[in-house]
Amino acid sequence: MRYLVTGATGYIGGRLAPRLLGHGPEPDLVPDPARGPVRVRCLVRDPDKLADVPWAADAEIVRGDLLDPDSVRAACEDVDVVYFLVHSLSDSDFAATDRRAALILGEAARAAGVKRIVYLGGLHPDTDAGALSAHLASRVEVGETLLRCGVPTIVLQAAVILGSGSASFEMLRYLTQRLPLMVTPRWVRNRIQPIAVRDVLRYLIRVAEIDAPDAELNRTFDIGGPEILTYFEMMQRYARVAGLSRRRVLPVPVLTPSLSAHWINVVTPVPKSIAKPLIESLVHEVVCSEDDLKRWVPDPPEGLIGYDRAVELALSRITDGEVETRWSGATVQNVPSDPLPSDPEWAGGDVYLDEREQPCSASPERLWTVVEGIGGERGWYSFPLAWSVRGWMDRAVGGVGLSRGRRDPHDLRTGDALDWWRVERLLEPGGARPPGCDRDPEEGLLRLRAEMKVPGRAWLEMSVRPRPGGSTYHQRAVFIPHGLPGYLYWWSVAPFHGIVFGGMVRNITRTAERDGDPPAAASRRPSWLRSRPHRDRAA
User: Fold this and answer.
1) Which residue spans adopt a coiled-coil conformation according to this UniProt entry (predicted)?
2) How far, in Å, CA of 461 to CA of 447, rounded?
3) Could you point out which of 256, 413, 425, 452 has its C-alpha 20 to 30 Å from the C-alpha of 329?
4) How do residues 197-215 score in pLDDT, each as one tens digit?
């Protein structure tokens, strides 16, 4: 079987692709070997985002955009099954974007002779599209567009997906853990049929293998877990599984989805741009109206995963630092995304720098471990209050703030979200260097691009070089202002740079000198999640 996976850098696609290749931790979540060799092609806008995933060497990674007909046509060539797993959730015009992407993909798949398209949409009540939230209406429209494209299409419709790192689960987790008493809107009493991400992946793999007339399969199928719960019950059951006290909830009629999204933006890591469409979907009761798919894909012998077990599995992954993909892995919309120019003077305008360096008696390997472990629960090694205040300010205006944390407590990959930063380039000490790279092979480099709300473009670079008797830590902050607000912003924060950036340099090197050499970060992680050692991970 030959598969094309779109959205392979996203939450579901990033879990499906490795399982199609046999790289997942579950031995039963693989394609049927009787169908012959498996080939997986991933269409991504930035192939470097998959440079560090452990399964990339076994997949064909191609550059392209679902809004570019030429690249989509090329990606569909010589493919049996196409997975459409992209949804522009935080794009202000997501409905038009997704509609166009579906039209382009459907036309390209039909021209290439693709045998089947599989789309993961949203479970919704049987009502007119005008009565649905914009988010759900868009999902319905994309499904209908694909069903009309001329290629047999299976549209799977799921409600809340329970899994470590999913936006829905993170919203539920943080609301329940942080608020023993909460005022909630009336929708917390609506019924929901959540489903474990493991069962979603099983359906995605198995529906591609169904042998049945196209006319019977070109349709929607509802998929859900074995239990129907209200959101209130989901919070109480989560609290019980997590060992928390019973949560007190006071429903009120005045909290609109927009107000609820503002509240979630403050309490959880999920920003308002993503929280609002999720909440608007919960306003509807989302329960399966049929289970026709069981005719071709019966439940496993042990049954579908129940709610409590799904929560246990997700929490164990989080506790053990084994989260494969997170909602934050997708690039934030409406933020500058250009890579840092190799020579900042190229900008043709003012470029502000804060550059610092300090020798360290620790080995380069030990110092690099501290650098690669920065952010998340460990923080930023200086003036925590200043970092927190800046994060709160960003959240207040709809930004991502500091609360996204890290995908993994020890390991970073190109493209990872790291609090309000995005990993733009990662060169491990002793790793291979790409053509044209002038970095010393023994030097380690971590370059982060800011995704917070800021009037300009900002980067933070941290590098480690060996020296006799230890190592050298080098740090560079770069800011390219945009208009007068950019200049005012830089000069308003410049007086604090000595405390913030100077403190980072001192405390990072002190931490490396103080702590003993731990085992390499990758060795603490299971092999199916481990990145390949000593390679260039440049964006």
Assistant:
1) none
2) 4
3) 256
4) 999 999 999 999 999 888 8
